Structure formats: C-alpha cells, structure tokens
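thought: fold this chain, then report.
action: predict
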Amino acid sequence: MSGHVSGMSVRSLALHRRSPTACVSDDLTETAQQAYLERFSWVDGHADTWSPLRDADTLAVVVTALGALVHESGATLVVGIEARGFLLGPAVARAASLGFVAVRKGDGLFAGASLEMVSAPDYRGIQQRLRLRSGDVREGDFVVLVDDWIETGSQAEAARSLVERAGGHWAGCVVIIDEADDRVRKRVGPVRALASGDLLP
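observation:
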C-alpha cells in the first residue's frame, strides 16, 4: 500500500481528531478497511488477524476508525475480552477518550471479587469462563465491547450478561470484521464494523 487512499494519507487520517458527536466519515472507515484488508491473509486455513497490525500506519488508522465507531455508539466505557480485546480495547478506548475494563478468561490472576459467566460454544465448540471484576462496571455506565472479529457472538453475549449484571447498559460491539448473522445481532447488537466478512480475500 502506498500510504495514500483517495488523496488522503493513512497517517493523516489516523491522526485526524473527531468530536464525540460526529458520525464516522466514509473516508476514515474506507481507508482503515482497505489498509487492513490489504494486509490480511489466511494461514493454514485460519484468519491471520495479527499481521495487519504490524504496520504502524495500519494500526494507527484502524484504532482511530474503531475509536470513531465507539463514539458513534454513545458508549462511556470500553470492555475487551482476553486476548485480542486486550490488544485493541485499551488503544481504542484511548482514541475515544474513554476508560477500559478487562474481561478475563479462565483462571488468570485477577485480584478481587468478580462476576463469572460461562459462554455458549464458539465456532470451535469451545466454551469460555469469563470474569468481570466487581465494581469495574458501575450503574449508569454505557458499555461497548471492542474486538477484532465477531461471528457466533458467544463471548460477546456472555460479556453483555456480565455488564448488565454489574448494573451497566449495553452499547453493542465495535469490531474490525463482522461475520455475525441476524440471530447474533439480536443478542449482542448493534454491531459496528470496519468490514463485513464477505469482503475478506
């Protein structure tokens, strides 16, 4: 990629500051989408979601575009699920000038009391035990989940349950790639994304 799309550089778009009430610009979304998809590939039949983020300009514009989608959701707090949500969530929260809350899997160290939920099986048939620390989400928080991909929505749905049990309100999901169907959207929506799954190479 040359670093320019439609006369606009990836870096200039990545550094573009947006107001909380602004709608996501087509230029920003399309530039982030193109930059990511140009570097996306399949490895041994699995999606390589990591390699596109190795490029600094692509990482910057993807984070900025996701931050704009978070603004559009009206969220006041970002939540991310281990592990990819830990990579993207804090960066996107910072781009949106919001705080970040972690949802851990399994038995990893997580000091303090926590709420727990076992997810429905994911696309591999695996269930995950998710934990949200008590008090990290509070009454009145409007919480959006940030991740790289959504398909079955099993973990997003479990995260929603944890957020609502903690007294928060659900603002949906912001992701890079959206492969969710209408049934998933009813459980975890709205879903805002940089690209739909049918655009993958």
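thought: worth noting. The CA atoms of residues 85 and 147 lie 5 Å apart.
final: tokens above.
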